[in-house]
Amino acid sequence: MINIQKIRADFPILSQKVNGKSLVYFDNAATSQKPQVVIDAEANYYKEINANIHRGVHTLSQLATDAYERSRLKIQQHINAKFSHEVLFTSGTTHGINLVANGFSSFLKPGDEVMVSALEHHSNIVPWQMLCEKTGAKLVVIPMNEIGELILSEYERLLSEKTKIVTVNHISNALGTINPIKLMINKAHKVGAAVLIDGAQAVPHLKPDVQELNCDFYVFSGHKICGPTGTGILYGKEEWLNKLPPYQGGGEMIATVTFEKTTYAELPHKFEAGTPNIAGGIVLGTAIDYLNEIGFENIAAYEHELLEYGTKQLLEIEGLKIYGTSSQKTSVISFTVEGIHPYDIGTIIDKLGIAVRTGHHCAQPIMDFYQIPGTLRASFAFYNTKEEIDALVVAIKKAQQMLT
Ligand SMILES: *Cc1c(COP(=O)(O)O)cnc(C)c1O
């Protein structure tokens, strides 16, 4: 069970006024708000143990290194990775995907295929397009249907020995659809393709088990799970991370350097060149502890309640249409209101203190599929309430009156 009063008290920003009105924050799929423990942990790091890691013999450096490595272990446990060196710190989902896409340029030849889905965020499309341009491989797209699900029969038809990697999101940021990734991973492995899962929208709502999924790579961002911006995780199976070439060269990723030859450090350091976001990496662990204390079963159950309530209330509004109506979805509602541009509604309800996303949500191909310029997107987190949804409905009706 969620104790909503207690939880809301953990998030200082939620009691703010915006434009003179109580903030209703429904842009959680873009970034989450941060609880006080996370804010404090960031400050305490700089107050108490700030030092560079993995380098010094001095006490602070060791304290910082220990805290950073403890956080890695925590995240390993959280996602159930087999080894802690399969857990790489990154600056976010985008960084993780680019690291893998860049590495695959050494494996691909013209005629090979890279498969993405119609539901992807731009950051899980563009790096693969760049890879295809570089290698002569072909980008193949798994199509979607009207309710925002991937068409699995087409997926199976498109898979072949030419497919070298399939890269798909666990949950769509624009529509909330939960993709059947376990099944998709199995099918890809049957033709010998690797699979990268973009888990950016999944980790706020569930605890992924990378061994159970048997994915080759799983990436996510810290800032969408109550952690700091500029943090993220790339999980990769040991055998893949050993095969992939390093992404960036620099300090910390080497074993020995001479002008004739450099040898690379062991995992995970091979992929962690330079001084990382040390505070961020440590505090990401704090954020994950915070969420685990609430419990992901509790989070998922409560958010599902918000999704059902929100869907029902929003559909009472005349002319409102929801995009993405799969039975398998998280607490994301993408919608339009007939005859009004999403941006105009977004602007008016912002004046009423309500934050939603308007636009294409970094997923233009989905908007093209529906032949719309964009949607309004209300994405709910475990700290939102039904009263806030009521406020959203009232605000949209007000905007509707003003604009029609
Ligand atoms: C947010 C998001 C990304 C990009 O994450 P960054 O933190 O901007 O790197 C990628 N994919 C999905 C599904 C997302 O929701």
TrEMBL record:
Organism from which the protein derives: Flavobacterium lacus
EC number: 2.8.1.7
Lineage: Bacteria, Pseudomonadati, Bacteroidota, Flavobacteriia, Flavobacteriales
UniProt record similarity statement: Belongs to the class-V pyridoxal-phosphate-dependent aminotransferase family. Csd subfamily.
Aminotransferase class V domain mapped to chain residues: 24-392
Domain of life: Bacteria
InterPro entries the UniProt entry points to: Aminotrans_V_dom (IPR000192), Aminotrans_V_PyrdxlP_BS (IPR020578), Cys_dSase_SufS (IPR010970), PyrdxlP-dep_Trfase (IPR015424), PyrdxlP-dep_Trfase_major (IPR015421), PyrdxlP-dep_Trfase_small (IPR015422)
Listed NCBIfam families: sufS (TIGR01979)
Cofactor(s) the protein needs: pyridoxal 5'-phosphate
Record keywords, A-Z: Lyase, Pyridoxal phosphate, Transferase
Transferase keyword on record: yes
Protein name: Cysteine desulfurase
GO molecular function, one term: pyridoxal phosphate binding
Catalytic reactions on record: (sulfur carrier)-H + L-cysteine = (sulfur carrier)-SH + L-alanine
Function noted in UniProt: Catalyzes the removal of elemental sulfur and selenium atoms from L-cysteine, L-cystine, L-selenocysteine, and L-selenocystine to produce L-alanine.
GO biological process: cysteine metabolic process
